[in-house]
Amino acid sequence: MSIPTEQPTRHSLRRQLREARRALSRLEQRQASLGLYRQLAQHPNFRRARHIALYLPNDGEIDPQPLLRAAQRRGKHTYLPVLASWPRTHMRMQRLLPGERLQRNRFGIAEPRPNRARQRPLWALDLLLLPLVGFDEQGGRLGMGGGFYDRSLAYRQRRKRLLGPRLFGLAHECQKVACLPLASWDVPLHGVITAQRRYGC
Ligand SMILES: Nc1nc2c(c(=O)[nH]1)N(C=O)[C@@H](CNc1ccc(C(=O)N[C@@H](CCC(=O)O)C(=O)O)cc1)CN2
Ligand SMILES: Nc1ncnc2c1ncn2[C@@H]1O[C@H](COP(=O)(O)OP(=O)(O)OP(=O)(O)O)[C@@H](O)[C@H]1O
């Protein structure tokens, strides 16, 4: 019997995949962002959703801003992650007002100024569009390693019947891997969307 080949660790996989997305040119990024818009703007889950959380791109992530603008044009409520000052491991989703001024968080990512009155619990959103570093076709997601999304979604493990938002990962094709090593706290995605195609949705 042969020895099973070693799976690359989450750490080295993360480094490799982050390098791959950062290597995309500005033109490739623009095309990917437009392709992503075309894949999702007419999708029933996007059309139906009233409360949608997205993110602002960082570190070569695919840019969902055309979708953000489309959602705002259609009168939907759009939300961005806001890091909690305490506990530092948590984030909340806060409604973005059109034209609102943003500030940079400790990772250098722009976010709205924290305002509890505009924050909405994750389970009360209709659609959550997640950034990711890597994905597989089984719904596996590898993130930046902060555990922010997994922690925010942990209620799903405890309360399986609570429906909550559809979870779609947004990615470049170069972020796809055959099979991700999954951790016990990982929350599976319902689907992943790239500029080229939709996986599982
Ligand atoms: N666009 C975007 N927004 C997001 C996330 C994300 O992945 N993408 N997050 C998803 O969770 C949360 C922020 N999580 C992050 C976790 C680590 C790093 C990061 O750059 N880490 C550096 C080390 C940073 C440092 O300690 O100074 C690194 O690994 O190089 C960035 C964001 C909330 N907002
Ligand atoms: N539900 C949870 N409760 C407590 N700790 C958690 C939970 N989910 C994740 N963590 C912690 O967060 C850390 C990072 O997790 P992981 O590497 O899966 O993050 P990630 O999914 O890559 O990051 P992110 O969700 O921020 O993009 C882990 O060390 C884990 O201990």
UniProtKB/TrEMBL annotation:
NCBIfam families to which the protein is assigned, alphabetical: MTHFS_bact
Report what the protein is called.
5-formyltetrahydrofolate cyclo-ligase
* Family matches, as InterPro entries: FTHF_cligase (IPR002698), FTHF_cligase-like_sf (IPR024185), NagB/RpiA_transferase-like (IPR037171)
SUPFAM superfamilies hit by this protein: NagB/RpiA/CoA transferase-like
Native source species: Pseudomonas fluvialis
Q: Write out the similarity annotation.
A: Belongs to the 5-formyltetrahydrofolate cyclo-ligase family.
Q: Which reaction does it catalyse?
A: (6S)-5-formyl-5,6,7,8-tetrahydrofolate + ATP = (6R)-5,10-methenyltetrahydrofolate + ADP + phosphate
**Cofactors (names):** Mg(2+)
Q: What is its EC number?
A: 6.3.3.2
What does the UniProt keyword field contain?
ATP-binding, Magnesium, Metal-binding, Nucleotide-binding
Pfam assignment, any one: 5-FTHF_cyc-lig
